[in-house]
Amino acid sequence: MSQDNPLENALVRLDEAASHLDIDADVIEKLKFARETTKVRLMIRMDDGSRKSFIAWRCRYDDTRGPTKGGIRFHPDSTAEEVETLAFWMTFKCAVMNLPYGGGKGAIQVDPRKLSKAELERLSRAYIQAFARILGPDRDIPAPDVYTNSMIMGWMADEYSQIVGQSSPAVITGKPIALGGSLGRDDATARGGFYLVRHLASDLGLSEELHVAIQGFGNAGQHMAKLMASDGHKIVAVSDSEGAVYCASGLDIAALITAKQNGRSVLATVGHGGHEALAAADLVGVQCDVLVPAAMEDMIHARNAGTVKAKLILELANGPVTPEADAILQKMGVTILPDILANAGGVTVSYFEWVQNRQCFYWELEEIHTRLRAIMEREGRAIWNVAKEKGVTVRTAAYVHALLRLAQAIEAHGTQSDFVA
Ligand SMILES: NC(=O)C1=CN([C@@H]2O[C@H](COP(=O)(O)OP(=O)(O)OC[C@H]3O[C@@H](n4cnc5c(N)ncnc54)[C@H](O)[C@@H]3O)[C@@H](O)[C@H]2O)C=CC1
Ligand SMILES: O=C(O)CCC(=O)C(=O)O
């Protein structure tokens, strides 16, 4: 994140929501600060025999509504403030979806692309060794995020089970299917956003065939491209950390995914099927109907918001639009389906995984999709109605919706409670 204190930007949204409700000041005071953020230094043995250290964090932001839940990010630019901000968003996201969770998040400050597979496994296990005492299926439940995946979740679940001396799959979600992972968790983040857009399409005034630009081509971005293309829409531009490609008549999604699976950039497809290279920074201003940020925070800001051509922004990334850009886009008439709703399909299927782990009975893919779709539509519709009734943006409506649930839970704990699981 670019700001010195990104949590301040996030709290702007809390204040805005609170201004539309009659909320006790104690509730706001509780939600303004992370309950606990633990910082550790992980030491691992590198393949060449040397030892190297990495800073890592786990934040349990708020556990009023249940065990804290949220992914672990491996990124060279991660900071404590970023982790706390991401955990704040998880608190609201879980409340938006009415999941029985609070919000958490973790990170290791590392570029995982510079580690061998064995080094990556040692680092992932070291993270769990350091944090096992604050994790647990009823306490804090990690999952994948940027540059982490099911393989890493599998190592982490294995390490935790070894430490506690019993199989404990429900401590982590997003695991490989062979270790108790859920069907449908792989594309859940994108699928939730996809169901939401389909459900609100006529309210949003969207046409039958949409032109879509996607920023970031990892888990969220690739699955979104596949889902939208298979629904008859054209993906006209995608980007990754190295650059972007554009094709007005629609990119070849299979070729792009093959390039990424082979460890290459989307730029490797330039020249194939009419793919043209584009500066990554220009993706935001591409001519399209739907812009899908699916990379990092603060990518749409005061300096590039005015270039947006899309009528809809679907935030699969967490925090991709700054509050300044929000104001500009609102004036331009651009609708934003905000992160705490639009990308909540991921944590929702994580919840399904946790439920299946606890009951030791596993659902078919169709059941996962049916349940995910029902929750996305129910909460999406409720938030849409709040936006219309109060005359506010969908983002503010989502915060209002979540804040009401959080306030009820905080008050139900009692005025003398400082509940800590
Ligand atoms: N994986 C999940 O289940 C969930 C992910 N998210 C959010 O979605 C976003 C993407 O996460 P994943 O797809 O899981 O990560 P990922 O690690 O699979 O992919 C990240 C992608 O972003 C690209 N990227 C990084 N910096 C970029 C830049 N400056 N410009 C363009 N592209 C850039 C990378 O090249 C990569 O293609 C993050 O904000 C994450 O927090 C949100 C909810 C759930
Ligand atoms: O699947 C989960 O538990 C959390 C995913 C996540 O970190 C997010 O929604 O940002």
Shape: globular
| Uncertain regions spanning at least 5 consecutive residues | none
What is the typical, i.e. mean, pLDDT?
Answer: 96
- What ligand molecules are bound, each kind once? 1,4-dihydronicotinamide adenine dinucleotide, 2-oxoglutaric acid
Task: State the total count of DSSP E strands.
Answer: 13
Instruction: Report how far apart the termini are.
Output: 30 Å
Integer-rounded radius of gyration: 21 Å
Strand content: 15-25%
**Structural class by sheet pairing and helices:** alpha/beta
Number of helices: 13
Biggest sheet overview: 7 strands, mixed
Order of helices and strands: HHEEEEHEHEHHEHEEHEEEHEHHHH
Helix % is: 40-55%
* Spatial arrangement of strands, main beta sheet: 10-9-8-7-11-12-13
Keywords: Oxidoreductase
Domain Glutamate/phenylalanine/leucine/valine/L-tryptophan dehydrogenase C-terminal: 182-414
Family: Belongs to the Glu/Leu/Phe/Val dehydrogenases family.
GO molecular function: oxidoreductase activity
